[in-house]
Amino acid sequence: MSSRLTRDDARALALQILREKPDPAVRVRLLRDSLRASASDTRLEEARAALEDSAHVAALRAEQAKDGSWGRLHSREAAARQAVPTTEWAVERAWALGLDRNHPILEAAAAYLADVATGKTAPSDPPEKNDRWPVGVRLFAAATLARIAPDDPAVDGVWELWHEVARRAFVDGAYNEEQEEAALAELTGAAARGTYLVLSSRYALALLASRADRLDHGLEQALVRWIWGRPEGIGSFGVPLSTPPEAASAGALERFLLSHEIAAGFDSSGAPTGPLADWLERHRRSDGLWDLGQRASWTAALPLSESWRRGNARSVDWTARILGLLLEWQT
Length: 331
Prior knowledge:
- This protein has helices at residues 7-19, 24-34, 42-51, 55-63, 87-97, 104-117, 133-148, 156-169, 177-188, 202-210, 217-229, 250-263, 275-282, 313-330.
- It is an all-alpha fold.
- The protein has 3 domains: 1-50 and 293-331, no CATH class; 54-126, no CATH class; 151-270, no CATH class.
- Helix 1 (7-19) runs antiparallel to helix 14 and helix 2 runs parallel beside helix 14.
- The longest helix has 18 residues, at 313-330.
């Protein structure tokens, strides 16, 4: 095998898996992400219809509140006995399963998130007693909403804020922490160093990536170089994008993949080369599929299949996810 799958290779592998009639979420992900099927494609329509009857979608539907949320927005409640821990997690899960922005579950969630992002409503999370929380809440909501509907007007104000922070932080072409800190203090009034309210956070980066086409090309390139060069990677993930985990725990592997899924949203991210391409190749089986082991307990990305106890389900799920990432890199 070559060290890097071509687009044709990825499409052929997706079609190979589809011929084996995997569970609905796998079919939707392969058709949506790998084959880029149109919304009117009969295969995609049939897969989404079947997905409606899955246990995964039933779990999301069962715990969604009337306001469109799943209780708390961002902070998990340790005492809560629910399968869906937060609204953030639920939206990530819905996207991973293949629900689109017009699905009733995500339509309701988008309306709720828009109200939080614009300050019309407050989430049920206990507010932190600091000057960061009001800004953070709007960031969490806007970044989550941008996953569903990046062009929603409720995203505008928060995206512009972080665009301006990025512009000032990279005004000289390279990242400057002091300039970022000064920009955040002036624009938000918050002391942000060492917290989630910084440009390197998963939320700020995911939000900016959701409208990457609106970024100045030079700024985007500088931002991507900085992300790839940070030893600690994205936000609290703590894993460098440029160094694949060799003997990683399920949690470290998940943080590594999540980091790349965020970074791939930028147009300048490019396809994986060098050590990363080699790592992906080494972890492919002889049949072309990936099986990266057990999933992290907290991930919203997996499983896609109804059960990993059946046949090839685990490897099919991992492969559907990785193919989507590879093709996002190559877009």
